[in-house]
Design brief:
Shape: globular
Number of domains: 1
Number of helices: 5
Strand order of the largest sheet: 1-2-3-5-4
Helix content: 25-40%
Strand content: 25-35%
Radius of gyration: 16 Å
Largest sheet: 5 strands, mixed, barrel
Distance between the termini: 28 Å
Order of helices and strands: HEHHEEHHEE
Structural class: alpha+beta
Mean pLDDT: 78
Low-confidence stretches: 13-18, 20-24
């Protein structure tokens, strides 16, 4: 790993640690409802990532996993690997209690959400309402068992505060 990359990695880890969602107990078969949320930093899926990025991510994760005390990133990575979700897409959902979760989806369900962009929703004063039956993984992550509702409605699409570029789901 190059020394030039070290500040970027440290910044990324600090942001990840500072932006931890509030944990809410969600049992298997629970229905969650909330709005699509566009954050400025999304980590946790290698869906559609180029091979070079996947390789770098795995090398970095493997080096972290060799440590005895796993940080949150290492625990999430291990859990996603165990559940076979590293290559599944996810979206962030702001629940009605203001907590933000990562909702892991299959490709077909993801395509229903991916077509909406942050700028399109913001400019039209719309938001995307999502309702799903889920199973909790932990660390603010859930797996969608059934996507019940994806509805474009009046409202404000909320991004995280800050001056970072907000990326659309790809």
């Amino acid at each position: 790993m190059k020394i030039k990359q070290l500040p970027s990695i440290i910044l990324m880890l600090l942001l990840l640690a500072a932006c931890q969602p509030q944990e809410r107990k969600i049992t298997a078969g629970t229905t969650i409802e909330g709005d699509l949320y566009f954050g400025f930093l999304r980590m946790g899926s290698l869906y559609n990532a180029p091979d070079t990025e996947v390789h770098k991510y795995k090398l970095y994760a493997d080096s972290l996993l060799k440590q005895k005390d796993l940080d949150t990133f290492g625990k999430k990575y291990t859990l996603l690997q165990k559940e076979n979700l590293l290559y599944h897409p996810f979206v962030e959902v702001r629940l009605d209690n203001d907590s933000i979760i990562n909702l892991y989806l299959d490709s077909a369900d993801y395509e229903q959400i991916r077509v909406y962009t942050y700028h399109e929703l913001r400019d039209a004063h719309k938001k995307l309402r999502i309702k799903a039956i889920v199973q909790q993984l932990g660390y603010g992550m859930v797996v969608c068992k059934e996507l019940v509702l994806v509805e474009k409605m009046e409202g404000v699409t909320q991004p995280r505060e800050g001056k970072f570029k907000i990326e659309d789901y790809q």
